[in-house]
Structure formats: structure tokens, C-alpha cells
Amino acid sequence: MIMKITRDEQLMNEIKDWEMELLNYFPNDFEQYYEKWISAAFRKIDKAKREAFLSKIDTYLFHLHAFIENSQSLHEKKLYYIRKARTFDTNVRELSDIRSLPIDQIIYMAEQDVAKQRLLSLVQGGLTGYGGGFTIADLPFTFILNLRAIQNVSISYGYDINIPSELMISLKVFHASIMPKRMKGEAWNRLWKEVSKVEEDAFFYEGEENFSNINTVTVGALQFLKLLFIRSCRSKDNIPFLSIALGAGINYKFTKEITEFAQKFYQKRLLFERK
Asked: Pfam families, per this entry (predicted)?
């Protein structure tokens, strides 16, 4: 007799297939050369200065995350998800109650918000390609939009980032998700190994609080190269259509990869907690 698997088991199998694809990714020659070049250049800097620089990145991201976290719009977002979850189950009273819903209902709610975040990234990338002050503001806006996207994914799966442990976990998810594809498999394993030690609904985070490393610098350098590439493709016409299309496409793809990574993480985390 054939045993029929549940939807939760089916989704877990899909996540495992995604994990294998991530872990088996092999970088091309250009990616390997680029990584070695960035690593060699960064290691030439004095160790104390390197550590101070990485510490400043951690501090910047933490304060940026906390600023978004304490905004009124984020509070309204939590209420929005609670009200929306009640359309599926009238017993939902708190954010954590969302986790008791069938997984497809949770994914449905999350996907709607993720689609909006990707659209915002598309528009922001197009403005970057247009030029002017939009290009200068691209890097901070890109980080803000994608940090917000991670926060929204966390909330949509019933995890409250106003709790210090959830704040740190969402930051670590963000950091792992922005890694180039050749580094994401290792980042995923490291993230999951660390977060799996955190007790369910723990208030404080007791794991490693530093997360920036040389790979973070690699990501920043890639974003800078992206801006140079878009600028080089900008025409002298009144409306630089090519650079607008490039900026929109690159930023959309970046956000799509980040939100997909975040959703896979929170889906796997929720399924493990249900076991």
C-alpha cells in the first residue's frame, strides 16, 4: 500500500531539492577569479582596520534594521497579517498563531507581499538606471528595501522581529541571502546550524552576533560594479532606456533571490518546529 505524504512533507522535499541545487552550484572561472582578487585585496589591509571596518558594517546594519523594525508601518504590517490570517482561521489572535495555519495559506499571504517588494525593487532599479541622485542613493535604498523584505517574510510566517532573538535571526538571514550564489550553500548551512540551536520562542539570541566577513565586502564590491556597469550603458538620450532596463532587471533579480532564500528558510524552520 502506497503511503500518501502530507503537504508539509511534500514541501520539505521541495526545500531539500532546492538545498541540493544550492550546495552543488559550481562557480565559473570569472567568479572564482573575482573572489580570489577581492580576498587578496582585502587581506592586504591591516587586520585591526579590517575588523574595525567589518564591525562598523554590523553596527550599521543592526541600527538600520532596528530603525525599520520600530517604524509605524511595520507595526501596521503585523496587524495586517493577523487580520488576514483571521480570514482563514477566526482563532488567530497573535502573530505566532499564524504558524498554526496550513502551510499553503501562509505561503499565499507571504507571496502577495513578496510580489510587492519585488515590484518596488524593480522601480528603484529603474530609477537608478535613469541617473542623477537616484544612482548615488542606490546602495542604501537597495539594502533598506531588501532588509524590509526579509522582515516582512519573517512576519508573514508568524515570527515577530520585535523580539531580540528574531531580530538577530532575520539579520543573519539577510546576510546569508545576499551572498553570491557560489557562497550561498555554505552560508545556508552555517545559518541553519546556528539557528537550529535557538530554542523555540526564545526571547534573547545566544548565538554568534557578528555576521559580516570578507564575503560581505565581496557583495558590496559587486553592487559598486553594478553601478559602474549601468553607468557605462547609459546613453546620452533624454531617456536612457537601456540603463533603466538594466537597473530594473538587476535589482529585481537581486530581490527575487533574497526573498526566495528567506522564504525557504522560514518554511523549513516552521516545518521543523511542527515536528
From this structure: EcsC (PF12787)
Q: What is the pLDDT of residue 89?
A: 92
How far apart are the two ends of the chain, measured CA to CA in Å?
A: 24
Mean residue pLDDT across the chain: 81
Task: Please answer whether residues 232 and 224 qualify as being in contact, where contact means their C-beta atoms are separated by less than 8 angstroms.
Answer: no
What is residue 204's predicted lDDT score, i.e. its pLDDT?
A: 56
pLDDT at 256: 94
In a domain, 3, yes or no: no
Q: What pLDDT does residue 72 have?
A: 63
One-letter amino acid of 158: G
Which residues lie below 8 Å from residue 99, measured CB to CB, with a gap of 6+? Answer: 106, 157, 158, 270, 273, 274
User: Is residue 184 in a domain?
Assistant: yes
Domain annotation covers residue 178: yes
The range of the structural domain enclosing residue 243 comes to 8-274
Q: Per the domain annotation, does 145 fall within a domain? A: yes
